[in-house]
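Colleagues,

For the teaching module next term, I've prepared a clean inverse folding example: a structure given as tokens, and then the sequence designed for it. I'd like students to try predicting residues themselves before seeing the answer, so please don't circulate the second half yet.
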């Protein structure tokens, strides 16, 4: 599944039609896909009440096409059209002349305003008003309609559900911004490919579940440079079964460097995730006094407490010397719970300045930077030129804002563009966490996790993710694939953790997520991803949704 702007989708459709794919075929395929999703959501359509809002352009054509299919399947259809042609009337006359009599009426669109409050049965509203080509503001009466529908659908026990075609009407398809009067959807059937605006914060709020419906355009018409949405088939192809004669040395060593008096647990959770990922050996490097506590919690790790002169609870210059004396040649995560006191900042700066120089006598070690380590990076001028071993950074939006010297709001409005630009500029894989986590490859590729779920909004889940990625690096994954696998496995593991706890979207501990990593990997290796889990993803293909 690919992610496109409105202009990119238009160009793809034009190339497909020039190659011989007829426009009416695309509309017919879209209509059938939309109708199938409606049938699935209503668990059958015979006798069900469906209101179709048909606007101008292809979006309205798709809506009318879906109405035709649903009517033939036995749904009770009412069409409200603002088209300038006679397409809606022709459709109804055709059905009535064939004695199907399945479309109840085609009334003046604005009459619908007077009817909304009288809807007493369960209705599904099919939103085909304005698609990706819409440029102008809706007229005041249409704004009044969308506002009224939004108020009704926000009520508890509402009898209305809205399904948007391609994007919710009134939304900018490229940045998710709201033109006057976005019609909020419970579900959006994104036709052909996911539109970029759906992946923004505003898009997420207004789009509901996103189901990607193919319309018959062959995959080769979608440039490989377009961002892709991760799925179980992509990730399972990156994983391999292990040979029977393996031993712990076969699967590498990972190191986690972190911890401070107030954040003892963060490096432990990261190390736990690295162990659960399958790394053969995991070394936990903490200030001296924290080492004894760490050993009790995670006896499977190699504990390497560093000496310090200031209370043995935070890293300092003595820690730097001891750390650089290690055999420092394995994937290493720096940052979880490490703190930001001046001695710790100096510790991280000296490590960055002392490693990664690219000398032939010093092998590349693959450094992952997370949490407070990222904030320390931001205070080091041109950090990306000082250490070529930094290969992955995993900022949340606030940390990304600090790195880029912009606001968090600006980050959230430009997630895809920013990740793509900065991963190339910095020469590292950037994993921008949050809803629809974005992964940028320095070579220009970008991947999106299809999960946007508040169950991961819990302390420590970010440490689990960075530890998981580091463990995968230790097992031989390249930085981009380690990040792709790590992000996807992390998301599915959180859903498994919630399922095990019989939870909805809260109360899941970071350690609950870490402990589900092996099960997620097994499911992926077996090619047997639980459909229940895939159906919980925010973005899903029509094929998977209907299966």
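(Answer key — instructors only)
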């Amino acid at each position: 599944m690919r992610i496109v702007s409105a202009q990119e989708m238009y160009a793809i459709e034009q190339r497909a039609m020039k190659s011989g794919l007829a426009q009416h075929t695309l509309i017919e395929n879209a209509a059938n896909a939309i109708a199938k999703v409606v049938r699935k959501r209503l668990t059958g359509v015979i006798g069900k009440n469906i209101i179709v809002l048909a606007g101008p352009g292809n979006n309205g054509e798709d809506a009318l096409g879906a109405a035709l299919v649903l009517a033939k399947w036995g749904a009770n259809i009412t069409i409200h059209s603002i088209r300038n042609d006679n397409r809606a009337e022709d459709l109804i006359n055709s059905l009535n002349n064939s004695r199907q009599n399945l479309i109840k009426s085609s009334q003046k669109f604005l009459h619908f305003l007077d009817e909304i409050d009288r809807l007493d049965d369960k209705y599904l509203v099919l939103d085909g008003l304005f698609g990706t080509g819409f440029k102008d503001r809706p007229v005041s009466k249409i704004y009044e309609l969308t506002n009224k529908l939004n108020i009704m659908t926000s009520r508890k026990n509402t009898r209305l559900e809205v399904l948007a075609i391609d994007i919710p009407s009134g939304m900018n398809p490229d940045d998710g911004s709201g033109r006057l009067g976005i019609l909020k959807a419970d579900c959006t059937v994104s036709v052909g490919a996911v539109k970029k605006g759906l992946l923004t914060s505003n898009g997420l709020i207004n789009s509901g579940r996103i189901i990607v419906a193919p319309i018959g355009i062959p995959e080769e018409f979608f440039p490989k440079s377009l961002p892709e949405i991760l799925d179980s088939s992509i990730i399972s192809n990156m994983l391999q079964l292990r040979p029977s004669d393996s031993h712990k040395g076969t699967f590498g060593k990972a190191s986690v460097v972190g911890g401070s008096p107030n954040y003892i647990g963060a490096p432990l959770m990261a190390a736990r995730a690295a162990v659960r990922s399958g790394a053969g050996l995991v070394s936990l490097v903490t200030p001296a006094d924290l080492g004894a506590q760490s050993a009790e919690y995670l006896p499977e790790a190699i504990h390497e407490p560093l000496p310090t002169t200031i209370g043995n609870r935070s890293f300092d210059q003595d820690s730097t010397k001891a750390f650089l004396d290690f055999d420092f040649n394995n994937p290493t995560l720096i940052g979880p719970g490490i703190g930001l006191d001046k001695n710790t900042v100096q510790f991280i700066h000296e490590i960055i300045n002392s490693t990664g120089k690219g000398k032939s006598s010093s092998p590349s070690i693959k450094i992952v930077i997370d949490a407070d380590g990222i904030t320390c990076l931001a205070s080091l001028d041109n950090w990306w030129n000082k250490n070529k071993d930094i290969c992955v950074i995993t900022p949340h939006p606030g940390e990304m804002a600090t790195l880029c010297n912009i606001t968090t709001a600006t980050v959230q409005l430009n997630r895809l563009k920013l990740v793509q630009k900065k991963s190339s500029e910095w020469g590292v894989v950037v994993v921008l966490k949050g809803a629809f986590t974005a992964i940028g490859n320095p070579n220009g590729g970008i991947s999106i996790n299809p999960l946007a779920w508040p169950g991961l909004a819990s302390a420590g889940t970010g440490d689990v993710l960075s530890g998981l990625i580091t463990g995968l690096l230790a097992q031989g994954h390249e930085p981009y694939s380690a990040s792709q696998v790590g992000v996807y496995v992390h998301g599915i593991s959180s859903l498994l953790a919630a399922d095990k706890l019989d939870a909805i979207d809260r109360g899941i501990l970071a350690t609950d997520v870490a402990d589900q990593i092996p099960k997620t990997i097994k499911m992926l290796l077996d090619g047997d991803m639980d459909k229940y889990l895939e159906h919980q993803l925010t973005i899903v293909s029509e094929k998977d949704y209907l299966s």
